[in-house]
TrEMBL record:
PROSITE patterns: PDZ (PS50106). This is PDZ domain-containing protein. SUPFAM superfamilies: PDZ domain-like (SSF50156), Ribosomal protein S5 domain 2-like (SSF54211). It comes from the Bacteria. Keywords: Membrane, Transmembrane, Transmembrane helix. One of its GO terms (biological process) is proteolysis. Pfam families: Lon_C (PF05362), PDZ_2 (PF13180). The chain crosses the membrane at residues 7-24. It comes from Solibacillus isronensis B3W22. NCBIfam families: SepM_fam_S16 (NF041438). One of its GO terms (molecular function) is ATP binding. Residues 100-186 form the PDZ domain.
Length: 349
């Protein structure tokens, strides 16, 4: 190869690397994996020996490069999403990951709570404090708190409910001090903050964080969960069904391969999630028989914001039809809708 050829080949490699690795301000979302829930959940002395299986479905997401952007522009069920439509205001990669893992932790809590409640078994809920999701730049907590911190005490009072925290912080005015005890990496640390105006709030004062309640649940038999690399709340429904399937003697699957999605709320409601069309595509590739989809209510406010919005169930059913799938898509508003359907389902074969 001559010098000109070597130079041309070198330029080609540089361009290819740029197309492959240069990060754009977009995410690419696409169908992810479909996973047997029993691989992630186990109950001590539970009953995992069933003929069928429950599956959770995922959406794969990664930051776009010029190459993946071009591929996503022409591929079915791939979407190009702005970073600002995925992340909250001022949220960086670490904070986004913390928020997604907290959503998964909450889905595990709710699934366990609902499953043991429906099974009529004992459980004990402990309020742990407030979980820090995001720290606003130049707010009172900037430089003091981190995403993933857990505020367990405020002004020498244990945080045993959200109301306790609100009652303490509401009377505070600009310049007041507030003393926190924070759990970080398993250790308790003391932090004293000075109340400031919340950045971007136009006259509101506080410590400048977004947070979520943190609770744990103790059960007998014990539940073991291993989902360290999976984020988001959408596996809640399938977690709940798998837990119930292991808690009771009956085989809820009736021999079917059953997938689905939906956030599980504490009252048993199945909440709306994103990317359901990609999850149907993923489940179809896995050869699933039945797919549970949230039959969420579309409110007037939602239609005003997005006139073309439809329920998760409608999107899932349309997707199954579009890809000529044999999956039977079942609408569910609550965990009881799913259980009633399974109760009436005739065993496979």
């Amino acid at each position: 190869m001559g010098n000109k050829g070597k130079i041309a080949f070198g330029l080609f490699l540089v361009i290819l690397m740029g197309l492959s690795f240069y990060r754009l301000d977009y995410y690419i979302t696409k169908p992810g994996g479909t996973y047997n829930v029993s691989d992630f959940l186990a109950i001590q002395n539970g009953d995992p020996d069933d003929e069928g299986s429950f599956y959770m479905t995922t959406v794969a997401m990664g930051q776009a490069t010029p190459l993946t952007y071009a591929m996503a522009a022409v591929a079915d069920y791939y979407d190009i999403v702005k970073l600002t439509d995925v992340r909250q205001e001022e949220e960086d990669d670490e904070e986004y990951n913390v928020r997604q893992l907290k959503y998964m932790t909450d889905s595990q809590f709710n699934a366990t709570y609902v499953a043991f409640n429906r099974a009529g078994l004992d459980y004990q809920v402990t309020y742990k404090g407030l979980y820090v999701l995001n720290v606003l730049a130049e707010g009172a907590a900037d430089g003091h708190l981190k995403p993933g911190d857990e505020i367990v005490e405020v002004d020498n009072e244990r945080i045993d409910s959200l109301e306790t925290f609100v009652t303490i912080i509401t009377p505070k005015v600009k310049g007041d001090k507030i003393n926190l005890v924070v759990k970080r990496d398993g250790k308790l640390i003391d932090e004293t903050l000075e109340i400031k105006e919340i950045p971007g709030s136009e006259g509101r004062f506080g410590i400048g964080i977004t947070y979520s309640e943190s609770k744990s649940i103790k059960t007998d038999p014990k539940v073991t969960v291993k989902t360290e690399d999976i984020g988001g709340p959408s596996a809640g429904l399938m977690f709940t069904l798998e837990l119930l399937n292991q808690l009771i003697d009956e085989d809820l699957t009736k021999g079917y391969e059953i997938a689905g999605t939906g956030e599980m709320l504490e009252d048993g409601t199945v909440g709306r999630i994103g990317g359901i069309e990609k999850k149907v595509v993923s489940a179809d590739k896995e050869g699933v028989d039945i797919f549970f989809a949230p039959d969420d209510e579309i409110t007037k406010e939602m239609l005003e914001y997005n006139p073309s919005i439809t329920s998760n169930y409608e999107v899932a059913a349309q997707t199954a039809k579009a890809i000529n799938s044999d999956i039977k898509v079942i609408p569910v508003k609550t965990i009881d809708d799913a259980l009633n359907y399974l109760d009436q389902l005739q065993p496979k074969n």
